[in-house]
Write a structure and sequence with these properties.
Length: about 425
């Protein structure tokens, strides 16, 4: 692992733990100073700039670059934006409570209480789950009457709503289910596991915010499925690993790990969960002893170091949700023609969530999807299709190494 990556995760680990048990040595401080411009750029790509800046300040790493007015304004703006999103969430949740909406607040704001400095965790939107169809329609109408308008980002599991106030735009993702359909047998298992979501009351004391969220086991599983969803499309960055680290560290004593292990086995996600947890232990300071003390079942005795490095490289080069790597597309579950066609069909449904319900439109929609794919490669990504296909092949191999093609194998059996 190169020095830049080592320093980057060292700073993140430092920021995630208020006791600073993962100390930064003088040698590492010097390395950080030498790599500072690259580290700040990497933090921007992964949307963890405030974590890195906070760690730099707390371990007394001073540099003229950190004092520049432009950089200071950037950090101030990010912090202000996070507070702004938090209090916007507070206003919207009060509206839902006032109208007795049964909802669950997902990821983002619902995870802030697990961080030493909640304002450092970036938030670009608010995610709310309303799983009952009638309640979903009522909630959607309520939000529209409040002033929200429908955006273009509609998928099979959520709808994007925009709210404009004081020259600012706020994004709310209203979910009818937790995860989008991936077109494999795992979908039915997920549906069964989340068939009943009983909201749990939580509080974010520093913001005087009360909210409803998933119970601990369901929340943990959702965080894993959220990582999986992005991993099998364009990838995800370091921020989701930070979420996994702080949630596990703060809630390990509440988790029924035997029940959670059964969920993992039913979903075929044991290797994926083991690798993500091991990465958090090695690079983000997740205390192994806390997990062992609470009888965590997904601590692997041995994990291939080469596999860990490949997954870390995949996360590192992705940036936030794959935005930094233009050679990435959705990964097919198997490296054959039928899986490629199935994945193309899935992409068509993402592009055209409403029209795709009518099979008579499929031939035209397939053609448009293929045309968009080829044009975007040249015009937007400025990458040739051959390079994209090679990158896809390499990521498919990683996909198989994590046994994420097991659902396809179970389907065949």
């Amino acid at each position: 692992m190169n020095t830049e990556i080592t320093c980057f995760y060292k700073l993140l680990s430092y920021a995630l733990h208020s006791d600073h048990s993962d100390m930064i040595t003088q040698t590492q401080k010097e390395q950080i100073r030498q790599k500072l411009p690259d580290l700040l750029q990497l933090a921007r790509q992964h949307n963890v700039s405030l974590f890195v800046y906070d760690a730099l300040c707390q371990c007394d790493i001073d540099d003229p670059l950190l004092q520049e007015t432009t950089f200071q304004r950037e950090m101030l703006f990010e912090c202000y934006h996070n507070y702004d999103m938090l209090f916007f969430a507070k206003k919207i949740l009060a509206l839902l409570e006032e109208h007795s909406v049964s909802y669950c607040l997902l990821k983002g704001v619902s995870l802030l209480a697990n961080y030493p400095k909640p304002e450092c965790r970036s938030a670009s939107d608010i995610d709310i789950l309303v799983s009952d169809p009638k309640e979903y329609t009522r909630t959607r109408n309520l939000l529209l009457s409040y002033g929200f308008c429908v955006a273009n980002g509609t998928t099979d599991h959520h709808e994007e709503l925009l709210y404009y106030e004081n020259d600012k735009t706020y994004l709310l993702e209203l979910h009818n289910k937790l995860i989008n359909n991936s077109g494999n047998v795992r979908d039915e298992t997920i549906k069964a596991l989340f068939k009943q979501t009983i909201p749990v009351k939580k509080n974010l004391s520093f913001a005087a915010l009360s909210y409803q969220c998933l119970n601990t086991e369901q929340n943990l599983l959702y965080l894993l499925l959220h990582m999986l969803q992005h991993f099998t499309s364009l990838g995800f960055g370091a921020k989701l690993l930070c979420d996994w680290t702080v949630f596990l560290e703060h809630h390990a004593h509440e988790i029924d790990f035997m029940a959670f292990q059964t969920m993992l086995e039913d979903l075929g996600l044991v290797p994926f969960c083991e690798v993500m947890t091991e990465l958090c232990i090695r690079y983000l300071g997740l205390p192994r002893e806390i997990l062992e003390k609470n009888h965590c079942t997904f601590l692997a005795a041995t994990i291939d170091p080469a596999l860990l490095q490949r997954v870390l490289d995949d996360i590192h080069t992705a940036g936030e949700f794959g935005k930094e790597n233009h050679t990435r597309v959705l990964i097919a579950h198997q490296n054959n023609f039928s899986s490629t066609i199935a994945q193309g069909h899935r992409q068509m449904k993402i592009y055209f969530p409403k029209l795709s319900h009518c099979f008579l439109f499929w031939p035209v929609l397939w053609s448009i999807t293929l045309y968009r794919f080829l044009c975007n490669n040249r015009r937007l990504r400025k990458i040739d299709t051959k390079t994209i296909l090679e990158n896809t092949r390499q990521r498919q191999e990683l996909f198989k190494a994590l046994s994420l093609d097991s659902d396809a194998k179970r389907k065949e059996n």
